[in-house]
Amino acid sequence: MSLIVFIVGGAGYIGSHMVKQAHLAGHKVVTLDNLSTGHKDAVKYGKFEYCDIHNAKRLRELFNIYQPNVVMHFAAFSIVGESVLDPYKYYNNNVSGVLNLLKVMVDFKCNKFIFSSSAAVYGNPEYTPIDELHPKKPINPYGKSKLMVEEMLEDFDSAYGLKYISFRYFNAAGHDPEGGLYERHYPESHLLPLVMQTANGERESISIFGSNYNTPDGTCVRDYVHVNDLCQAHLKGLENLMNDNKSSTSRIYNLGNERGYSVREVIQSVKDITGKQFTVINQERRNGDPDTLVASCGKAKKELSIMFRYSKLSDIIQTLI
Q1: How many angstroms from the chain centroid is the CA of residue 44?
Q2: Structural domain of residue 104, as residue ranges?
């Protein structure tokens, strides 16, 4: 079944990979992006339309032209520290912008939405692995903004029949193994690309923030999931959402590999795979970093028949070389 798919934020890291995977799956893809953090040259498939989702007039023009069947949203700001320093930026874009988009969707009777959410909605874990029933207590404006949208979606479903799937990512990582699509954040804040930059000589050193956490080696443990596996999960969700038609129910799923790796393990894996040695600096721990964040993905695997291709950290690192 070929669909007309709007991918909002399709010029960004995960969005650009989603554009490719949706195109290869046979869908007609239209990227909507204001290029505030995205890159137009990353949109290698389908149509590109410059659009800020706060601009209702522009959105209405594009909905009228293309008549999309479904909207996928990847256009959030996502730097936790920045969200603490500038919460207005995050609530304005991540919440207000989505609210505007949802209103236009309702007006044009486009009632299928797939939302890129985050494990940040859980806050400090009360238990691990974290399943979808874990209490939602976000500890920063970024996580709060994601939870606010999930709550808005629940209300839009109840009031207007807008059906959605919300995917709560753990740590997205990796590049398209065929090349051409990369993680290009400025400044970069994610561990794996920072370690790779250090291995490649682009940085003088990599820092470990805290070595006294309640983990086997004292450093934080995180669950990494490859960006293409995220995209394949979205396609499974899309298929499921469309096949259910009028009887479809909105759902929320975690996306992770259900395996945690410590900061030291990540650094050592990069050294082993690249054969490069580099300087590692131990620094004070940062406020708000939980000891361990590992997903339980049984629900997604059961209901969407998801199988992750890049199940090991080494598999993910190989796509970064």
Answers
A1: 19
A2: 4-173+224-255
